[in-house]
Amino acid sequence: MFIINCPYCGERDQTEFSCGGEAHIERPKQPTELSDDQWAEYLFMRKNIKGVQFERWNHAHGCRKWFNMVRDTSNDKIQAVYKMGEKPPVK
Amino acid sequence: MSKNLRINKNNFIDQTTRISFKFNGQKLFGYKGDTLASALLANNIHLVGRSFKYHRPRGIMTCGSEEPNAIVQIGNDPSLTDPNVRATEIELYEGLDASSQNCWPSVNFDIGGINNFLSPLLPAGFYYKTFMWPASFWEKYEYFIRHSAGLGKAPTKSDPDIYDHQYSHCDVLVVGGGISGIISAKLSAEKGLDTILIDDKSFLGGSTIYQENECYKINSVNSNKWLANEIESLKNYPNLLVKNRTSLAAFHGYNYLLARESLTDHLSVNERKGKVRQRLWKIRAKKVIIASGSIERPLIFSNNDRPGIILSSSIKKYIDYYGVKTGENISLFTNNDSAYEAAISLYKSGVKVNVIVDIRKNSDSLIVKEALELGLKVLWESSVVDTQGYKRIKSFEVMKLSDDGYNVVGNRSKYSCDCLGISGGWTPMVHLFTQSGGKLKFRNEDNVFIPDENKTPSNQISVGSCNGEFKLNEIVVNTIENLKSFLSLNNSCYDGIKIICPDEKSKRNIWLLPSDKPIGKTKPFLDFQNDSTAKDVKLALREGFKSIEHVKRYTTTGMGTDQGKLSNMHALGIIADTTGTNMGELGTTTFRPPYTPLTFGAIVGRNVGKFFDHTRKTAIHNWHVKNKAEFENVGHWKRPWYFPKNGENMHQAVQRESKAARDSAGILDASTLGKIDIQGTDSSEFLNRIYTNAWSKLEIGKCRYGLMLNEDGMVYDDGVTTRLGENHYIMTTTTGGAANVLSKLEDYLQTEWPELDVYLTTVTDQYSTISICGPNSKKILAKIVPGLDLSDNNFPHMSFKNTKISNVNCRIMRISFTGEHSYEINIQSNYAEDVWIKCMEAGKEFNLTPYGTETMHLLRAEKGFIITGQDTDGTLTPSDLQMDWIIGKRKFDFIGKRSLYRSDTIREDRKQLVGLLTEDPKEVLEEGAQLVENINKKPIEMLGHVTSSYFSPNLNKSIALAVVKSGKKLKGKKLIVPMENKNINVTITDTVFYDKENKRLNA
Amino acid sequence: MLSFNSPIKEEKKYNDLKIVEIEPTIKINLRSNKREFSTKIGKILSILPPNEANTSSGNENYNFLWLSPDEWLVYSNNINHTLDNQIELENNLFNEISKLNQGAVTNVSDNWVMINLKGSKTFDLLSKSCPFNFKDFKNKKGSVVQTVLNHVDVILHNKDENDLNLFVRRSFSQDLWLWINDSARFL
Q: How far lies B77's CA from each of B21, B35, B357, B601, in Å?
């Protein structure tokens, strides 16, 4: 059980959050112009890294805000949280 | 047998309070403060159980949670009996009734003991090797394997005890109440930090508290006296919480720890009533100090498992703490100094140890000198090679070790005994450290795995002997120094502390002691509970198992209820020796929680019975209960399923309800549908993007059905959305999908389209929804809202009106899920029950019939309306559902649009929704049944399956919906539904069975 | 007149703990990320919405709870209000905020059930099934937290020392009430 520092509410137990998978995958602005393969790339392909991973999380049982997290999946260390639209503070 | 081995000594036992208990039916006595193990030993009972595989007689080996043998069944009440309880941990209470496990008919005469003589036939991997073939015999094998599997007996009735959970947050959690834990807790509390100290015993102080030997002094007083004062001083800190009888079960990441507190397990049964038995603490600590101590290792030699063979440190505790002699003719076998402490303690209590067998060449430490001065006999550089005695050790045989320690030389000399203490050095308890993600390093000097300070997760520290510090001065001084930096202390109340302790000489480590016999003829046990021996481990290596994890599983070493606390190190050592590997490179098996077994009750807490899962109830729930509704769980909701009358069964009730709804009027509690209030200037644009159809042109006051897809083009949810104002809508979702839909919509708003001015607020609980349908619904509504013009002109299908019922505002939608003329009244929930009652009264003359989800499903199936989640399963596109009409093809984009023309979604042979009629109109298909065309062609090709099926009272025939490959093109095609006993002939039809022209909507 | 049926209608006392449903109260959910929102609200309610996370503002009539950077819950202190008061407030806010595109106003009076817990055991009770660390919360009057209690979403408003209001969705309220009463036995 992590302690997650919600960018809006502060430190809370992981119970209050849900994870929304990989971050920084933008929905194509003009899906109609994409080939099947390009669309499939957006739709299905996700990284599953052992190491530093960028993820989307939602404070589902709190403020209901989505935000991004940088987490090392090898030791569950959360390196940073930042608001939607912001650039990741670490590489 | 019934000797009294208690010595009269002022110790930790209250010898004024006698407690009677039963063991295997025999009435015995002990004292308050005893464990079951100490009380049994005081009664000269060593034989307590039989081993798992060979049913060898086994005795008490330890005095703590590492006990592999002395596990017993407590009580015989079918609901309260508790299996696999360690006799060394259970505190004696009046009326305790314990019995041996894994033996039949009794622990003294156990039929399974024959396995011991068959042991050459039961090598490692016996089950894997033997029960492989022939495959058809497996069912027979399984019976016997299951019969002989497991140790204790599980209770057969539900547990009446109360278990509780509690979250707790603290600055510092100290795990373990030995000397390093006490020092840690005091330093933390002294600094003003919120501190919790937990210890699994009833009494703090670890092994120092009964260390009476005068070689150990702290600030010029005996270490035990010094520690007792320290414990007393803990009471002065209001910010320090001490939890006795609390055992740490798990140490997870982010300093989240689970600890089980036993509250009544030490009380007599009468004193337990109404009290919480165990409480699971869920602790979040800013910092954790692990002071979990160490346990003594056994020595591995042939027949080292007989009752009466006990760890020497346990012998010391039994005599010094409990005042119990573990025997009258005791010898010791050791590879280090600590056995001499036991010898001195015994001597001071009037028991002279017969002989001490020491594999070392010599030792000149203070403690050994003291033992020699007392006249104790030591056999240096010697090893025990075998023992005798079936139910209790009678004698052991000693041989001289060769210079290199790999062999024994000379002749066997035999010594009689009734108890043999063994000491193989100490193993730090690093379980919690590794559970939390810490990595170990191997210290070659004394062959121990200790926490690697460079690979320790932040905000935790291991102190004392669990950190590999075994000498008193090291423990105390290092604990203080390490904590100063860990807790950022400038100085401490312990500064200048003076410690005197004997300078312990190093042990001589030999993992598997040599014998004059080949290993095949010896029985050197490693894992006492699971009966795996050194030769099993060697066999596994010969058979090609390399990884320690594989050897463990193949030989079952370390897989018992004790999780190999005593055995793992030796198994590793033997593997390392045999393969010529360094133990540090070999690594350890994974330490997994719980540290000691937890009861299921403690894990579950109060989430049993009515608290197993939470339930949601509508505002009209009480009326449904009063009117004998049967309920169905939908999501967490309790929804009326049907309302049986006069002993009707479900089918009869549903047929009556369905008929009434179409003949006159029916009423449904639809409050569970999700409702989302949508406001903001971009609300229409937002709906355009999330639904497949167009929304911009929907007039204020009108309703529209919408279909929501996932980005992969598959149908996700559906419902009716109403335009309440220019920039104001109210959306309904399915009951089960409500929370997910809201979360998904918020996701798109916050992450993909933050530029849209849209706000979503859930109002599912704010409004209750009462749906009235049927040809007489208009007449009934007219009585409820007499002022409202209900003409089709003013209030047409798919529109809504704001009105009042009595003094309360409400919205009435004219929408229909049954195909009948129908209305949905939405009203604030606290008034809903009364409105429902008023509707029932108004509808009396029209036989207004309450109906539940089953009738609702039937009525909509007659109309071919889908239920997302029943007729869809996340693999169907709108086109698959024959709902192409709802796709706004001219819209630029909506969620899932691009996926609707992927190569896969445009395949014509996808499964598509169709109607089915059975050849025999009375035959009702089973939902989930498969559809096939040719029953004779093998393998039979499955074309699809039935998704909804009912007997329609309004059509007087069976109807069904199904998904079938290329179903759209197959209208009129005959297919077969093969069932267990028969094949049912069906014909594919249109999905709409009833009122195809939708005339009834305006009837 | 339609009869009003709140879900709990009970008051229970345990050692150092009193629990009671407080009804009726007006509850309005507000959402906005517009600049003028605060001023507009201030004029109608005579209080400004709290901007700081996990806090509330209030006066004798209303409490204003922070729920997220663009969401608040307003509830009335006066239980003697009529249904007309509720409608009036809702309409007033809706016309001034939502109609003028300054945000969203939603009546949630019946969406949430308000339970008052009072007594020194209040936080021990909550901690039986709530992972939230109440240490700072309980020492700060007016603090607000949205969290989970026995797996159910709740909003907690710290009114005063050992005196808090708990909001739970109506459909979950009876179940949670049972759980609270059950757990109160083991304090």
A: 16, 21, 46, 16
Q: Does A51 touch chain C (CB under 8 A)?
A: no
Q: Which CATH architecture has domain B615-672+768-790+822-866?
A: 2-Layer Sandwich (3.30)
User: Inter-axis angle of helices B534-542 and B568-579, to 10 degrees?
Assistant: 40
The dotted CATH code for B164-294+428-492 is 3.50.50.60
Task: Please check the confidence at residue B1 and state whether its pLDDT lies above 50.
Answer: no
The ipTM estimated for the assembled molecules is 0.97
Q: Which two tokens stand for residue A30?
A: 């003009």
Task: Show me where the domains of chain B are located.
Answer: 1-156, 164-294+428-492, 298-424+505-510, 615-672+768-790+822-866, 907-1002
pTM: 0.94
Q: Does domain C25-108 have CATH number 3.30.70.1520?
A: yes
Instruction: Between B213 and B199, name the one with better pLDDT.
Output: B199
Closest Cβ opposite residue B165 in set C70, C103, C129: C129
Mark yes or no for CB contact C98/B679 under 8 Å: yes
Please list every residue in chain A whose beta carbon sits closer than 8 Å to the beta carbon of residue B747.
Answer: 20, 58, 66
Q: What is the DSSP string of B312-368?
A: HHHHHHHHHTS-B-S-SSEEEEESSTHHHHHHHHHHHTT---S-EEESSS----HHH
End-to-end CA distance of chain A: 25
Per-residue model confidence (pLDDT) at position B137: 65
State the Cα–Cα distance between residues B707 and B735, nearest whole angstrom.
15
| Residue recorded with tokens 């997220």 | C68
Is B626 at the interface with chain C, CB within 8 A? no
Question: Taking CA atoms, what residue in A is nearest to C133?
Answer: A12
Cβ contact, residue pair C111, B829, below 8 Å = yes
Chain A and chain B share a number of CB contacts under 8 A equal to 55
Q: Measured between CB atoms, does A18 come within 8 Å of chain C?
A: no
CATH architecture of the domain with range A3-83: 2-Layer Sandwich (3.30)
Tokens for B713, please give them: 């083009």
What are phi and psi for residue B62, nearest 5 degrees? -135, -170
Express as a percent the part of chain B with pLDDT over 70: 95
SS3 B955: coil
Q: Which residues of A touch C68 (CB under 8 A)?
A: 8-9, 62-65
List chain A domain ranges: 3-83
Domain B907-1002's class?
mainly beta
Residues of chain C short of pLDDT 50, as ranges, are none
Fold classification of C8-24+111-187 is Gyrase A; domain 2 (3.30.1360)
On whether any CB of chain B is under 8 Å from the CB of C85, the answer is no
Residues of chain C within CATH 3.30.1360.120 domain(s) are 8-24+111-187
CA–CA dist C49, C56 (Å, integer): 8
pLDDT at B350 over 90: yes
8 Å CB contact of C170 and B809: no
Which string of DSSP letters, residue by residue, matches B90-150? Answer: SBP-TT-EEEE-S-SB-SSSBGGGHHHHTGGGS-TTHHHHHTTSSGGGHHHHHHHHHHH--
pLDDT digits (tens, 9 = 90+) for B9-29: 767 999 999 999 999 999 999
C-alpha–C-alpha distance, residues B854 and B377, integer Å: 86
Structural contact between residues B27 and B20, judged by C-beta atoms closer than 8 angstroms? yes
